[in-house]
Design brief:
Family: Belongs to the GlnD family.
Cofactor: Mg(2+)
Catalytic activity: [protein-PII]-L-tyrosine + UTP = [protein-PII]-uridylyl-L-tyrosine + diphosphate; [protein-PII]-uridylyl-L-tyrosine + H2O = [protein-PII]-L-tyrosine + UMP + H(+)
Region (Uridylyltransferase): 1-396
Helix content: 40-55%
Biased composition (Basic and acidic residues): 1-19
Structural class: alpha+beta
Largest sheet: 8 strands, antiparallel
Strand content: 5-15%
Length: 969
């Protein structure tokens, strides 16, 4: 079943229909299959008759009967949910079931336990239960209404009921109040006021509930509409802020998140309070909602309830976050199926976000109606109501729009009908005047989307206005987000409409594709305005010199526009961009730049994060792709924006440093500045520089420690780090330490560096990686060097965890001690990893087939092995152990994590320093690596050495013959 929003997108760009759950929209629910109330009453009477003189047995038997009835009834509700797909009907069935149980319990208590208390108090439902809806795992919120001065027996009767309900395993929230207390508390507490607004009679003295409802309406509701609305909207805004302030989080909170059930509840509360309605359907004759909008409300409510009920049934608790772990199962339960380009779970989540978008539309429409009907509100109130009493004024240069308290509004209702280009112009005028949007204007935009047709899309003026919005120096992301929320962006650019609300089922991308693109644009705007110097010094420096801002902005907006297709989205996106650039009025030169940027938008990120940037072949190959400095500059900025917009915590200074290194090395090559001096000569110069830098050391020490290193070290490690390492090694030697670690934090790059000095060993990196995993450290890079005296000097970079340097240094010290303990044999690696993972639940949400790529063309000296698979604790340790088993010498490693997926790259040689050749050997490497990536390798862990402090009979030592040909200077 398809929402109107989806149908509108279909009209703009025909696409495969999104599946929706099976739904029964009728309110006439047959409850007979849930519980036979008469039979339940007879069972309770029979128990009473049999145990009149044994109250303890009586209560126990009663509990068993009610618990069984509740469990069977809920199971039947679940079966019916799977059959008819209606979430709202499921919630009503469970609510009705709970009503019957409470009523039977009330009758039992007031007849057999406290017979004098019948009709002395009333039991009412509040909260969601008061709306006659109840999710399987939700709290049961009850309000017990008392007459003035209730007796002790009344309290005991209520207490008996509550204890039975609690003993049934139900989560019961309750309050016991008189009418006077309810009224008094409602005046000062908005939460209690909302609860009583939703109150519904269940059983007992009905007159009490009727009296409270009458007095509440007269003494609390009358004249306080604006106050209540302002409080509820402020409460909603704070809730959104805590939940992430976007409806496009890929693991949304179905109840509390933006576009979730609580937003619909807020609309219901406001409607009921202000318009004095009991049902949302009553808003249609009042003109607040159209019939279609009411239908959208019903559909959204039913869909969200279906998702929530399935979540509770599946998890067995009140789970409100739609996490990756359960999304697949919910999609299956709701009847979604995979289609080319999108899996079943991605189609389900796309439908979810479209529904959340509909909820946002309904919120704007209701707010617009409130402003229209409350034009003479009391001055001085805040929020949406505070604007009611203010008159509009003209906007310079515009006859179509007016300003209303800092918001753009329509000068007349038929503005869009007279000239559809005004739909785009509305957002352009808002941008250049710095205005927010009046809810009525956005409501009329939403209702006028059918006016955005091919004629408007091809209109030169409309496209000029759009390009002005896109490349604005003010806040283009804000305006485009408003256009997207109103449905305009997807209609004006049908290709964009196809990725609206599209999620990618992985842990790396935090937002839907459309939200990611707008956030990417927001980062570009920040850099363009020079506000990101602390995060992106190089990008901030380059941006003013970019020759073509328009091309860059278009590329940023469109770089992921072809996601969800069967072919590579970069190639398909370049083809889409070629068509759109002509429409937007870009020149041929600009179009070619946009097309190239989109086609290669992942290249710089992947090279920087997965390749050895000290290997000259890496830089040469990348420069061959880029070919010009202008392309390099624009690709760098696009890459930064893309990574920053993936989600919180994805960007860090380490990634920034990798991109800057790649940029500077490639810039040097493109500018013709790559050194022609031989590798041996450059290594000699570096060794001499190290010797000179140790000027305050003795002549003997200067010679010893400046000649410890081979060419790879001298040519890739900065001089300041060489000096630091020399001091570290000398200190260890003086202390007689065969094994030592040194730590350094780097807050700007968001990494912590751990340097390990150890006797060389073929499994050294495997053991270090395992120790880091046991300590909870995420390795991002490893530099592996062997000294001329047969020791290993390995530098490991791990992701920073703490902001405070002192805290991070303590953590780094713990990691260093763990490495030393494992290398020395004081701790066994299998045991420490097992301790780390024993209580960790293994996620079954993601499936990534193991992939191994072995290449001899990516480096002149090394074979490059790239592995891709699902991440898990200890994986790097296991992979490096396999490489050691295969007698491969790891020269450097790049460890890259994209959410649940890892791409690890190893630069290796055989034991005599040669590349890996021969198909059979490569096939064996591939098979062994795929085996370790595919399953837990307990046997492999058991083979890990318990300690490696020993004479250097090592794999890396076996390469000394080859290395001495490039002997240290």
């Amino acid at each position: 079943m398809q929402t109107k929003r989806e149908a509108q997108q279909e009209a703009a760009a025909p696409r495969e229909q999104e599946a929706a759950p099976r739904m029964a929209t009728t309110n006439d629910i047959d409850f007979s299959d849930i519980l036979d109330t008469d039979y339940l009453l007879k069972m309770c009477d029979a128990v009473t008759e049999a145990n009149k003189t044994r109250p303890d047995v009586l209560r126990s038997d009663l509990l068993a009967i009610l618990k069984k009835a509740s469990g069977e009834g809920r199971q039947k509700a679940r079966t019916l949910l799977l059959a008819d797909g209606s979430g709202i009907n499921c919630a009503r069935r469970i609510s009705w079931l709970q009503d019957q149980i409470i009523t039977v319990l009330y009758e039992f208590v007031c007849t057999h336990v406290f017979p004098q208390q019948k009709d002395k108090f009333a039991v009412t439902a509040v909260g969601g239960y008061g709306r006659d809806t109840l999710a399987p795992g939700s709290d049961i919120d009850l309000l017990f209404l008392f007459q003035p001065k209730p007796g002790e027996e009344t309290h005991k009767a209520v207490e008996f009921m509550l204890y039975v309900l609690w003993d049934m395993g139900l989560k019961v929230g309750h309050a016991t109040r008189t009418l006077e207390e309810c009224i008094a508390l409602s005046k000062s507490d908005m939460t209690i006021r909302t609860a009583i607004l939703e109150m519904r009679y269940i059983c007992g003295l009905r007159a009490l509930e009727t009296q409270l409802e009458t007095r509440f309406d007269k003494e609390i509701v009358t004249g306080t509409g604006p106050e209540f609305i302002a409080a509820k909207l402020a409460e909603r805004d704070e809730r959104h802020r805590k939940a992430g302030d976007t409806r496009y989080l890929v693991e949304p909170n179905v109840k509390e998140g933006k576009g979730g059930l609580r937003d619909l509840h807020t609309l219901f509360w406001i409607s009921k309070y202000y318009y004095h309605v009991r049902d949302t359907a009553e808003l249609v004759p009042l003109g607040v909602l159209s019939k279609h909008e009411y239908h959208v409300f019903q559909k959204a409510d039913d869909f969200l309830w279906a998702v929530r009920c399935h979540m509770h049934f599946l998890t067995g608790k009140a789970e409100e976050r739609l996490s990756f772990d359960i999304q697949r199962e919910i999609a299956e339960a709701l009847g979604y199926h995979s289609r080319p380009g999108l899996s079943a779970v991605e189609r389900f989540m796309k439908h979810y976000f479209l529904v959340a978008k509909d909820v946002g539309d309904l919120t704007r429409i209701l707010c617009a109606a409130l402003e229209d009907q409350q034009a003479k509100s009391t001055p001085g109130l805040t929020g949406v109501i505070s604007r009611f009493a203010h008159r509009s004024r003209k906007i310079a240069g515009s006859t179509e729009f007016v300003e209303d308290r800092g918001r753009i509004a329509l000068a007349s209702p038929d503005v869009f009908k007279r000239d559809p280009i005004s739909i785009i112009r509305l957002f352009h005028v808002a941008d250049i005047n710095g205005l927010e949007f009046h809810p009525d204007a956005l409501k009329r935009v939403t209702r006028s989307l059918s006016l955005i047709d091919n004629n408007l899309r091809e209109n030169e003026e409309a496209n000029r206005l759009f390009m002005s919005i896109l490349t604005s120096k003010r806040d283009p992301a804000l305006i485009l987000r408003r256009m997207n929320e109103a449905g305009v962006l997807g209609r004006f650019i049908p290709e964009f409409g196809k990725i609206v609300a599209m999620m990618q089922f992985n842990m790396y991308h935090h937002y839907t594709v459309d939200e990611h693109l707008i956030r990417t644009l927001d980062v570009l705007s920040e850099i363009d305005k020079g506000k990101a110097d602390d995060l992106h010094p190089l990008a901030n420096k380059l941006m003013p010199g970019i020759e073509d801002r328009e091309a860059l902005y278009v590329a940023v907006l469109l770089h992921d526009i072809a996601k969800g297709r069967q072919e590579d989205h970069s190639i398909a996106g370049a083809r889409v961009a070629r068509k759109l650039c002509a429409r937007f009025g870009l020149s041929q030169k600009q179009t070619e730049m946009v097309v190239w940027l989109i086609q290669e938008h992942l290249a710089m990120s992947m090279v920087a994060q997965t390749r050895d940037l000290t290997d000259r072949k890496t830089i040469i190959d990348f420069a061959d792709v880029v070919q010009s400095l202008e392309r390099l500059k624009m690709l760098l900025i696009l890459t930064i924006c893309d990574i920053r917009a993936v989600g919180p915590g994805v960007w860090n200074g380490w990634k920034g440093q990798l991109l800057r290194t790649l940029y500077y090395e490639t810039e040097l090559l493109l500018a013709g500045g790559f050194s022609e001096v031989s590798r041996k000569e450059r290594a000699n110069f570096a060794a001499e520089a190290l010797f000179n830098a140790l000027s305050d050391w003795s002549q003997k020490d200067r010679k010893i420690y400046s000649k410890l290193h081979y060419q790879p070290y001298l040519l890739s490690v900065p001089l300041e780090d060489q000096v630091r390492h020399a001091g570290f090694i000398r200190q260890a030697d003086k202390a007689g330490q065969a094994l030592a670690t040194m730590v350094r934090t780097d807050s700007f790059h968001a990494i912590t560096e751990i340097t390990v000095l150890s006797p060389d060993h073929p499994r050294l990196l495997a053991v270090i990686a395992g120790a880091c995993a046991a300590a909870g450290a995420n390795i991002v890079d490893a530099q592996i060097f062997t000294t001329s005296d047969g020791r290993a000097l390995d530098t490991i970079h791990v992701s920073r965890e703490f902001k405070d340097d002192a805290d991070e240094l303590r953590r780094a010290g713990t990691i260093g001690r763990m490495i030393e303990d494992v290398l020395s044999g004081r701790k066994r690696l299998p045991e420490v990893i097992a301790t780390r993972t024993k209580n960790r639940k293994k996620s079954k949400a993601f499936v990534i087939p193991p992939s191994v790529n072995i290449s001899n063309s990516l480096s002149n000296k090394f074979t490059v092995i790239e592995v891709e698979c699902l991440d898990r604790t200890g994986l790097l340790s296991e992979i490096t152990a396999v490489l050691s088993d295969l007698s491969l010498d790891i020269q450097s490693a790049r460890i890259t994590t994209f959410g649940e997926k890892v791409i690890d790259t190893f630069y290796v040689t055989d034991l005599v320093g040669q590349k890996i050749s021969g198909d059979s050997k490569r096939s064996n490497i591939t098979a062994r690596l795929k085996a370790v990536m595919a399953e837990e390798q307990d046997e492999l862990r058991e083979r890990m050495p318990s300690g490696i402090i020993a004479p250097p009979t090592t794999a890396r030592a076996a390469t000394q013959t080859e290395k001495k040909a490039d002997s240290p200077a």
